[in-house]
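Q: Second attempt. The first request was missing the SMILES, so the protein and zinc ion are both included now.
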Amino acid sequence: MRYDHPQQRLNRNMKRLALLTLSLAFGTGTGSLLGASGEPAPLLKLRAVPFTQVEINDSFWAPRRETNRVASIPVNLENLVKSGNIRNLELAAQKATTGFTGPVFMDSDVYKALEAAAYSLATHPDPALDRRLDEIIATIAAAQQPDGYLNSYYTVKEPGRRWTNLRDNHELYCAGHMFEAAVAHFQATGKRNFLNVATKFADHINSVFGPAPKRLGYPGHPEIELALIKLWRATGEPRYFNLARFFVENRGKHFFAEEHKTPPDRYDGSYWQDDVPICDHKNIKGHAVRACYLLSGATDVAAETRDPALLKMLHRVWRNTTERNMYLTGGIGPSAHNEGFTVDYDLPNLTAYQETCATIALAQWNHRLALLYGDAKYADVVERALYNGVLAGVSQDGTKFFYVNPLESRGTHHRSPWFGCACCPPNVARTLASLGGYAYAVSEDALWVNLYLQGAAVAKVRGQEVPLSVTTDYPWEGKVALRPLPASPTKFELRLRLPGWCEGATVAVNKQKVAKPVIERGYLVLARTWRKGDVVELNLPMPVERMAAHPNVKDNLGQLALQRGPLVYCLEACDHPEPLASLYLPANAELKAEKAKDLLGGVVTVKGSAEVASEPEWTRKLYQAAAPSRHTPLTAIPYYAWDNRNPGAMKVWLPIAPPPPRANGLEAQAKVTVSFANNNSQPQGLNDGVEPKSSGDHPAALCHWWPHKGRDEWAQYTWKNPVTVNGAKVYWFDDTGRGACRLPATWQIQYLDGGEWRSVAAKGEYVIAKDQWCPVNFDPVTTTALRLSVTLQKDWAAGVQEWKVVEVEEE
Ligand SMILES: [Zn+2]
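A: Got both inputs this time. The predicted holo structure:
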């Protein structure tokens, strides 16, 4: 990925000068930090233009936002009734002590849906929705206890146990989502009915947690930090800021070890970002949503305290995130095991977890950094996330949702109407409903444009209300016309983000090309006295780009992905008669963008010609003439739009050459079945012929039995016709340090004999070792099915990279 801006590169000296000037202008030196290059980065502290001041009327977002309003938000509210979330709050209001349903964080989904609905009300008055929200808010208020405490799980299911398990039970997380919703509702309607509930609860929390003599503690799932900042800004009460600061600054004191009596030498708090003091984090780690909500709150706190250590940490962790741990689609968190991070550059495609909420959280964090520093590289991440990973989270009709967002599917991954853990659907809804809030910002004398959305905005610059009108067909075309419309001529800077993906941008003011534009930190700076009638024409060329990944991303070696403008593309099976797995795209194949106005709500596709690799048959052959490849038409669609047509396979990364042919042994002809597979186990990985390099390798397709632990499991090969075999070998998977798969306690091969499973007569031991093939030889059996039977170690799961069988040689 190219995050280094071409214009930035060209103007590095100019930038240095500008930074120097800015840092002098900001004078005191407090709050500056040294970047990797040693340059101080002053805190600009831009103010976002509220989404209520932004109108979006384009062909891209406007229809999606309308679908969000008329389909997704009502669907969210209906599902909260069906799934029992609202019922839990009613039970709490009735002081019931039985009947709670669902996970501990059920309340949070209600709050997020209310937040989305409130944003929608702010731009689309709707008396029926307004009344519905007031009804739900009345239930929430009735569920609040006299001292301000509010959580339906603890009120109904575990009364008397509140604040006893901050690590796992999400009370503070739910509170945070309530505060965000209440602030949104207050700002949308001017009513205080929800805000009063929120401040009463926040005051209760503030009476419990804080510096001694109050309690030490912080949430297992961060969220309340950034929410308290919003509550502080809405109410002006500094105690909410101080409490947010307390939660951020005390994190890393191993409170969860103490809470759960975990011996210090056995405590690894990284999943909760509780392993080291907050300022000592070197890299992004643990659960991805938790990490980015925490970093968002920490950025808010650092913006006020200007704590150099906290700012340095944010800078370090941001670099580690975007330079080593982010998908091309702007998503994060590759692993299902911890819903989060593993090791640098571990970005598998087929098993990418990339939770929708994590992409949203990354966008939220980067939006805060963009405001803090006024550097386009942060808004670049926001754009990448919004146009790709976030938007993929919801179907075109707004009624189905992705929780997990792989970059490759063999055809089994589809959106769901709802989830038992329903964090993602309302998170997408609130993001779309408040999208305009990511687009513009203001500083003392500048209006900053971060997203190019056709429509209008009204921003206050130099005390003047400045309307701005925008005409564009972005992201399909890179031409953007911006018209400032001040009531009287007004001097200010218009700062336009030059997207990191763009080379050769040009700009003209009133038809005059700006020959040597000033560029600062990725923003094109146009300073003048603006008058009605002025027009700025920005042109961002959008050729189809082939994107390569850093060579350390093993999954993408020898592969390229397609991107045009901010959109990442993918192939879907329904556009291709050949299996996607057999296609490759030579590096010089011609590609062109083509408008398809009737496809998927109107998209620009990428068309070209791919090659189909032949899969020769090698039985009893040592050499044969290599079969030539065949051409086949290729159609790529934007990644966000996949899984809206006939269900099938999908791929973002495409090989540039035919994959090396594999020796297809007897196992390749077998059908695979397993005793158990969760949704990210790929049993077909057992016989895909991909030679493992080590047990720790995470192959593209991995067969495992996680989260089953300590039990008996099996994988089975079934053949159409009987086979005669006398050996087998297994390459075990082991993700020590990342997950819960270890070598099994025991294994054996069984064969089907007249409807009965019998053990083979093994010659010698069943080898169990890491990083090698583990063979076994046995007396020949003739059968139609073999089983690899395992007993898992107590408290551990297991997985298999590859399982081969040995055919008896002919006499
Ligand atoms: Zn989620």
